[in-house]
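Reviewers of the previous submission asked for a worked example of the structure-prediction workflow described in the proposal, so we include one complete record here. The input consisted solely of the amino acid sequence. No template or homolog information was supplied to the procedure at any stage.
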Amino acid sequence: MHAALFYSALPRACNGVIRACHEAGVYGWIMEKMNAEMIVDVRGLEPPEPLERVLEALSELEHGRTLRMLISREPHPLYGILEINGFQYEAQASKLGHFEILIRYSV
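From that input alone, the workflow returned the following structure tokens.
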């Protein structure tokens, strides 16, 4: 993807960081880290949309990659679904008042 097109597709807050990394020559490393983790931000969405979005993202998750889910409340129903389908997870409350759930395939 052309750099200018890539920058315009990102939220404005990310543009400066990505642009600075590109100019500093660490762009490839940043992209590798971004490719290793999918981020699904469902904060503020009402049920069942957060569950639907994370399940859709999990259907595309490759082995070795991690999905980071950002959500406003702890998604208790999701945990059983993950375990039944061979995923492991780590849930943590953030200082900003939301939950971060790291999801990956069980080894």
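The mean pLDDT is 79. We consider this example representative of the routine output the project will generate in years two and three.
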